[in-house]
Every structure is written in C-alpha cells, then in structure tokens.
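Quick one: structure tokens for this chain, please?
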Amino acid sequence: MPGWYSLGMFAATKGIVVTFILFAGAFALHVVGGATDQDWLFAIAVGLIYLIATGYSGFALLIAGLARSGTRTANLTDLIGGVIGSLLTIGALWATNDRSFAGWHFVAGPLLESAVSGLVVFVAIQSGVAHSHAQPATS
C-alpha cells in the first residue's frame, strides 16, 4: 500500500463502504416489502433506511473503530459520512414527500444526519460498544 493510505484510512473506507451496504440492504428490503404488499416489512425497511441515512457518519465511525479516536482520519470519515448521509436523508425525505423536493429538505437533511450520528456515537460510547484502541502503557 502507498504511504498515504494507512491502516486508519483502510478502516475509514471500510466503515463508509459497510455502512453503505447496510443502507443498500435496507433499501432492497423496502423494495421487496413494497412489491409483495407486506406493509409491516415495508415499514421496518423504511425505518431502517431513515436510521442508517440519518446516522450514516456515526455508523461509519463505529464500524471503522474510530468513534473515540479524534484523529484526522476520524474527522475525514465523519465529514465524508456526513455528506453521504445528508444526501441519502434528503433522498429519503424526497421519497416520503410524494417524490417532490421542498426547500426544508436541504436544511433538514444535514441537521438530522448530524444529530442522529452524534446520538449514535454518544449511545455507543456510553454503552461501551465503542472502545478506544489505545494500548495501556507498560514499563
């Protein structure tokens, strides 16, 4: 691997890609639920779509193991995940609004993404799911 692509960047890429795969799975579930007229499955899938879209950067940080790191790589993961999550959230709001955009979608998307992602990371840290990768000092 080139020097600029460290293990931290690999972890960040993994977090972003795996989170997108989870979103795609929820989207596929929503298509299946709609196509088979299973309202309960459709409702669960839409809930998952909103959860993953609005919490995108938080989930990416957790999957990458960077939720507690505060490193430049974690900041970049948060930024990229925030942009992707905001766009997916705006798309979900568009679909919910009878497939038409409203001005408030473009404000609500990033606000919802940052709020839910922050909550995801906060809950993960408080519950002990997000661990620090720091090694104890030995002498």
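The chain has a mean pLDDT of 90.
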